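Hi all, posting the design record for the shared folder.

TITLE: backbone redesign
STEP: 1 of 1
STRUCTURE INPUT:
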């Protein structure tokens, strides 16, 4: 059978994951594991559940963000502040392969659910801990959200226009980067467990460190020459020409920074003089005259509509693109052709378009097996697997432990 026709089970089928986190960092990591077949049991506090259920746009009382973040998960309500709920959580952790949490350091230890306690019960457990500043160091006890990690990691300093107030990227990028690093850590730890006798381990991800890890040569430039990289707006410092340029009806991004690409770009916009200028034959020379090149490109784009600019430059193989809004994404054929927009039916019966699965695996692709759960809808089934049912379950409900 050809690989194109074959579809194996998702690669994480059979993996049991407990998710103790709320909002973004921890739950995003759980989402990725769930997309690729893991059984993810999300522990939520009784009553309101994860606050993300009520964030941003609501539809029929539930956040549409929740429908993305919590797909392929099961919801169990436990008030982890209560000893009986902590006992149940420990029993679930004994059977889990992975536990994800993003509480402030020390909270789970206070509940008897820290790494030392749980790893003693389950030596094969892999535990991902996402926090603002990590589990150690002088800042460990400070509260930290993604925006703080983005600032400390160096990203906020570079965001925005020169001389103006730094701006937010527009999404919770700090949390997402921490989650992605956490998933990498989980997969590495699972591989280590497989080849090294079954031992689990703890993964410590700090929000600011996840951002810092993506800051390219920021620190090395300072170390080597005392250079502090500054905000550059839409330009790409040290690489030219690469910027956003105005059109008569919007903006386009043009990356003309390859040597041969640069020549084609200059010829296309009618600047043979710049195309043939030997001082501009390499990136170093172009960076020295970046402002001149941006002015020349902008003078050409301002007289044209976005579609004309894109069509002209794509025809001569110059990388370019429009600045996409949500509408542009929803209407784009490339997104549709690659399955990056999928339609789900929520538990409330709504039809909703959501992002597809990434990365795309050829033999064992991920998928959306079931929509995001209602609060606590899996509590009875999961607790029954531990032998907790009937009068015992009713008593727990009466005490609002579940």
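Okay, here is what came back for every position:
SEQUENCE:
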């Amino acid at each position: 059978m050809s690989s194109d026709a074959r579809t194996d089970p998702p690669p994480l089928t059979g993996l049991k994951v407990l998710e103790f986190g709320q909002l973004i960092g921890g739950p995003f990591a759980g989402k990725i594991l769930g997309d690729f077949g893991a059984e993810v049991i999300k522990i939520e506090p009784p009553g309101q559940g994860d606050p993300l259920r009520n964030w941003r746009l609501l539809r029929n009382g539930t956040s549409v963000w929740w429908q993305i973040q919590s797909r392929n998960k099961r919801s169990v309500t436990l008030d982890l502040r209560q000893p009986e709920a902590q006992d149940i959580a420990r029993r679930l952790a004994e059977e889990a392969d992975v536990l994800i949490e993003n509480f402030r350091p020390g909270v789970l230890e206070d509940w008897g659910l820290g790494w030392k306690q749980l790893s003693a019960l389950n030596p094969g457990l892999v535990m991902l801990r996402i926090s603002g500043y990590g589990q150690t160091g002088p800042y460990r006890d400070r509260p930290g959200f993604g925006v703080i990690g983005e600032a400390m990691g160096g990203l906020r300093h570079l965001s925005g226009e020169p001389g103006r107030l730094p701006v937010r990227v527009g999404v919770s990028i700090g949390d997402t980067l921490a989650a992605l690093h956490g998933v990498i850590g989980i997969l590495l730890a699972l591989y280590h467990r497989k080849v090294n006798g079954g031992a689990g381990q703890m993964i410590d991800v700090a929000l600011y460190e996840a951002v810092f890890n993506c800051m390219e040569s920021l620190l090395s430039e300072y170390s080597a020459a005392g250079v502090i990289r500054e905000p550059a707006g839409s330009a790409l410092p040290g690489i030219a020409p690469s910027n956003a340029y105005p059109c008569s009806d919007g903006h386009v991004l043009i990356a003309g920074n390859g040597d041969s690409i640069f020549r084609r770009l200059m010829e296309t916009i009618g600047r043979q003089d710049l195309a043939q200028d030997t001082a501009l034959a390499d990136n170093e020379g172009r960076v020295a005259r970046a402002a001149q090149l941006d002015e020349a490109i902008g003078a050409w784009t301002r007289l044209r509509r976005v579609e004309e600019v894109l069509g002209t430059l794509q025809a001569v193989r110059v990388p370019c693109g429009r600045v996409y809004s949500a509408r542009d994404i929803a209407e784009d054929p490339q997104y549709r052709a690659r399955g990056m927009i999928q339609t789900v039916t929520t538990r409330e019966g709504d039809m909703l378009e959501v992002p597809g699965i990434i990365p795309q695996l050829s033999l064992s692709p991920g998928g959306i097996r079931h929509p995001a759960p209602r609060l606590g809808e899996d509590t009875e089934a999961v607790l029954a697997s531990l032998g907790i049912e009937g009068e015992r379950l009713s008593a727990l409900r009466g005490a609002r432990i579940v």
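COMMENT: The first helix runs from residue 25 to 35.
Let me know if anyone wants the other runs.
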